Amino acid sequence: GAVVSQHPSWVICKSGTSVKIECRSLDFQATTMFWYRQFPKQSLMLMATSNEGSKATYEQGVEKDKFLINHASLTLSTLTVTSAHPEDSSFYICSARVGSGRITYNEQFFGPGTRLTVL
Amino acid sequence: KNEVEQSPQNLTAQEGEFITINCSYSVGISALHWLQQHPGGGIVSLFMLSSGKKKHGRLIATINIQEKHSSLHITASHPRDSAVYICAVPSQGGSEKLVFGKGTKLTVNP
Questions:
Q1: Among A42, A108, A115, whose Cβ lies nearest the Cβ of B41?
Q2: What is the rounded CA–CA span in Å between residue A18 and residue A85?
Q3: Region A55-64: what's the mean pLDDT?
Q4: pLDDT tens-place string over residues A63-110
Q5: Per the CB < 8 Å rule, is B48 touching A43?
Q6: Which residues of chain A make contact with B42, given a CB cutoff of 8 A?
Q7: Angle at the Cα of A32 (from A113 to B37), degrees rounded to 5?
Q8: Is the distance from CB of A19 to CB of A80 less than 8 angstroms?
Q9: What distances in angstroms separate CA A33 from CA A63, A100, B23, B54, B108, one per listed residue?
Q10: Across the interface, do B96 and A115 touch by the CB < 8 Å criterion?
Q11: Are B2 and B96 in contact (CB under 8 A)?
């Protein structure tokens, strides 16, 4: 299957700093990428849908000014957690989908996740 | 919005046992995903299926669209199969947004 990478795999930062997480599709072009957040012992929750070349669509309750998403190319989407606070500590996961080509419509490939700890 | 129920929540098995994990959803869908989340958190896509059955190695996934139900089976289970198995479906009909079950934590003892 297709490969999606995330960087970094884990990050520890001080409260008030900003953290950027990258999501890359390594062997296919992703017109759409999704960002999820998972708190301990809970399900993945969709934060936003990122479309290449356009603004991200955020789910209800997710602050777009706090979680900045950029999808500047067909293989890269970034999530920046601005002015991070301890309550932002979570596991952030991206997935990527291609709308045409060899990959079936609606199939999503998941990145390995980034564990963020804000002190 | 689709609602996903998985059962059991936790499952402990002895090595070699046949494992079944169930997933039910409330709204008709185009496809259902089975994912595996390792203890470190990383997620692996196991299957995406829209009908019938798919098999990959010791893993078998089935889906009954009419009954809105899917099962994930593991034959000859092994301790390395220990993980959380998650079912995911579109939030609405053909939506690309997924909603996830709470997962089934599988522990396979040697």
A1: A115
A2: 9
A3: 92
A4: 999 999 998 888 899 999 999 999 999 999 999 987 544 544 567 888
A5: no
A6: 112-113
A7: 25
A8: yes
A9: 18, 14, 25, 26, 34
A10: no
A11: no
| A83 Rama class: left (phi>0) / alpha (psi -120 to 50) / beta | left
Pick from B30, B44, B45: CB nearest A106: B30
For A8-40, letters b (16+ CB in 10 Å) and e give eeebebeeeeebebbbbbeebebbbbbbbbbee
One-character DSSP codes across B23-51: EEESS--S-EEEEEE-TTS-EEEEEEESS
Amino acid at B8: P
Percent of chain B at pLDDT > 90 equals 74
pLDDT at A55: 87
Q: What is the mean pLDDT of chain A?
A: 89
Alpha helices in A15-55 (DSSP H): none
Structure tokens at B27: 């709204």
Per residue in B57-97, pLDDT (tens digit) is 999 999 999 999 999 999 999 999 999 999 999 887 667 78
Place of tokens 């947004």: B97
Q: What is the CB neighbour count within 10 angstroms for residue A65? A: 8
Place of tokens 């000859």: B76
Residue B6 CB-density burial (10 A; 0-12 exposed, 13-18 middle, 19+ buried): buried
Residue A47 and residue A67 in contact, taking contact as beta carbons nearer than 8 Å: yes
